Amino acid sequence: MRRLSGLALAFLGSALLAAQGPPIGATKPVAVTGGLISGAPGRDPSIVAFKGIPFAAPPVGERRWQAPSPVVPWQGVRRAESFGASCMQSIVPERKPWTYEFMAHNEISEDCLTLNVWTGAASARERRPVFFYIYGGGFNEGSTAVPVYDGEGLAKKGVVVVTANYRVGVLGFLAHPELSKESRAGVSGNYGLFDLMAALQWVHDNITAFGGDANQVTIAGQSAGGMAVHYLIASPLAKGLFHRAIVQSGGSSVSRTGITVGGKVLADAEAEGRKFGESKGAPVLADLRAMTWKALTEAPQGTPAAGAGRGGAAPGIRFSPIVDGYLLTAPVARIVAEGKQNDVPILTGANTGELGGLSGQQTVTVDSFVKRAMQQYGAMADEFLKLYPAATDEQAATAQAQSSRDQALVSMFLWAKQRARTARTSAFTYLWDHAMPGPDAARYGAFHTSEVPYFMNTLEMSDRPFTEADHKIADMMSSYIANFVKTGDPNGKGLPRWNPVGDKPEVMEVGDKTGPIPLAGDATKYALFERFLTTPAIPGR
Questions:
Q1: Which end of the chain is more exposed for a tag (fewer CB within 10 A), N or C?
Q2: What is the pTM of this model?
């Protein structure tokens, strides 16, 4: 019966495809900036995938550490059937809990500024909403070739999906006084973010050819990709390039000093860039540009590899976006507080396994729990310990995990409330609670990134032992995402109601359980964390 049902669905899909005509690119090339391209049928013939499309010139030679330059045109029809090279980084087969499907596996190159498009539109006139996804990786790794970022699953739900490579590590975020001097804007660093804006401009100029709507673009990202979404929301240079935003585990929270997404200022980053060059024996820019990528990204001279910063940096240097005064004119918190952000609807959330909910990952005793509470909560510690009592080490571990999760969720709610002071658009928040199946499910739970294949409807890109329940959750979550991309609201027929953030302190739990839940479990705990997070920290404590 299951086989017959599959055959029936396949026949129905083929019949619908024949009725609307073949998808764009199935029978003839598509014209884009630079020339003609041909795609390849997806696993489902109703979708055509175009991979490895250049959206900028290769950032090599004198273009290394410059904003993206225009695409170099090509002759004839370019076959866009496989992913372009990933940007320079270390490629590892897996790093538990992130197994094969979460990692990049293709070649790496400085010539990496390519993007990919999945579409099921039969005509350019369809104007389907666009989902533009930004990979994570701590701004030091990541790739559109990661299997779970495949766009076919969401494209089947009526949106055009785009993923784009951006430079990472030292090649994506090095600031240096000489680089700032040669820049017309007088800035350096943030090249990875400039890459994303160049890709979004490409979407604006070309997506109609794939049946997409340049006036309905949703930017989305997970982890560092989610942080990049926050930076783009805050950047005046990105105005008009997108219309909705999704942030997955990307810093939608507040601390006692305000909204947490920030960044070094240009002067500090330039000083670090000079320090980096000196650690490489390359005190001037010309020497750095003359170095091979391998020499740039290996451990500094005289430094054990284990002690080096990520991306080949000297110890203490981490390459990531900065407040340069141009792309990002001020810290994100200030831009939002002043109402100068790109005001678009936003959907954001986090996973249970990244909010202090991993059992067995650290040793917690009653003494260490109490000591941590006294240090963190100060005058509020006694009240905290009454709300989260622990008489045994096992209870202490449970209390620490639960209190960390509760505080994180209250922090996200307060972030949304702060945003609402200057934003006219809605915010939707979530807590992802579903553990991916596999031998490490009990250990890692709903770990950081584990929601991606469910949100993007890409379970088939993994060989985990998924059940019918997993597929139902993936269908539900990808439907929420597709609805948000189409309307700015995740709600739709047959889905549990998802309320936008309002005055009621709640979050939408999704996955194993789906529905709104009160923050911190009760009003007393919520009040404690609200008071703690809105009381400025006293310097030195």
A1: N
A2: 0.92
Q: What angle do CA 175, 86, 305 make, to 5 degrees?
A: 60
CB contact burial 276-311 (16+ within 10 A = b; e otherwise): bbebbebeebeebbeeebeebbebbeeeeeeebbbb
For 419, phi and psi rounded to 5 degrees?
-60, -40
pLDDT digits (tens, 9 = 90+) for 479-491: 999 999 999 999 9
Q: Using an 8 Å Cβ cutoff, are 403 and 384 in contact?
A: yes
- In this predicted model, what pLDDT tens digit does every residue of 311-327 receive, in sequence order? 445 556 789 999 999 99
192 class by beta-carbon count within 10 Å (0-12 exposed, 13-18 middle, 19+ buried) = buried
Within 10 angstroms of residue 332's Cβ, the number of other Cβ atoms is 24
> What is the DSSP track for 435-473?
PPPSTTHHHH-S-TTTTHHHHTT-GGGS-S---HHHHHH
> Which residues does the chain have with pLDDT short of 50?
1-19, 301-312, 357-360, 539-541
The whole-angstrom separation of Cα 433 and Cα 228 is 24
Which residues form the catalytic set?
223, 354, 448
